[in-house]
Amino acid sequence: MSVFVCGALHYDVIVNAPHLPRLDETVAGEAVKYAMGGKGGNQAVAAAQMGARTTFAGRIGDDASGVALLESLNRIGVDSSQVQREPGPSGMSVAIVEPGGGYGAVIVSAANLGIDPNRISIPDDAKIILLQNEIPEEINYIVAQSARNGGAEVVLNAAPARPIGASLLALIDVLVVNRVEAAGMLETDEEKLDPISAAQSLSKLGPKTVIITLGGDGLALYAAGTAILQHGHPVQVVSTHGAGDAFLGALAAARDAGKSLALAACFGQAAAALHVSTDIDKRKAITRQCVEALIAQPPIR
């Protein structure tokens, strides 16, 4: 069994600042860090970090950033044999993190837009397929169709928010969105969103299961006609940057290990809680055992 991830790779520049700049404002930052990013790359690393044998398919440029991205995947043990290379720049992003842990970011897709689906081969033993909205929808569709033909479970993280075709949604087993993305897909105001009702409504678009992540408030899960609200964990937030990817990677690893959707979502929540409460430089030390220890603690009530 294994996890297969197809998606974007970004070379992240992460800046700490007192607040996000307003139009025409220059803000003095306090620190800068560089890290591998892109939702696809992040989720692949998170799955591997939680013990899943993981393969990643994507595309990088022939620049120094591409070399660094490839090294990051290899270092954690992700199979990078399906990472394509092209002349030109790799994808990158700039994230500005505020003192409370919130952030704003800009991505430049570059090489990620040129992924060749004809060069992608899903391993025969792949049980869980992870997709996101940072690459063209036609690539997601081709991979999802191939995964469905092979009997794998297809998970789509519909982020960043964008319209999604009915043909792709019909191939999705598990749809994962946050409040903003859920509201966008349902064409409603985020403030008026009821997570349980929203999850039920999104399931009518095609996915068998819908998860709406709610940050520190937990998540709403709708599956097999049943909706539940799972509470989060009380942690001190350092930065929420990459929290959703930590959740998805851990969820995939747990599903690959045979856990039910509810238990896998619980595992993902705990992994995300540790992620947001740990300094960026120390996140690589978060293990499956750390996550299981947090799960054993009582949740927020």
TrEMBL record:
ATP binds at residues 178, 213-218, 244-245. Pfam families: PfkB. Substrate binds at residues 10-12, 38-42, 134, 245. The lineage of its organism: Bacteria, Pseudomonadati, Pseudomonadota, Alphaproteobacteria, Hyphomicrobiales. This is Ribokinase. Requires a divalent cation, most likely magnesium in vivo, as an electrophilic catalyst to aid phosphoryl group transfer. It is the chelate of the metal and the nucleotide that is the actual substrate. Keywords: ATP-binding, Carbohydrate metabolism, Cytoplasm, Kinase, Magnesium, Metal-binding, Nucleotide-binding, Potassium, Transferase. Activated by a monovalent cation that binds near, but not in, the active site. The most likely occupant of the site in vivo is potassium. Ion binding induces a conformational change that may alter substrate affinity. The keyword Iron-sulfur does not apply.
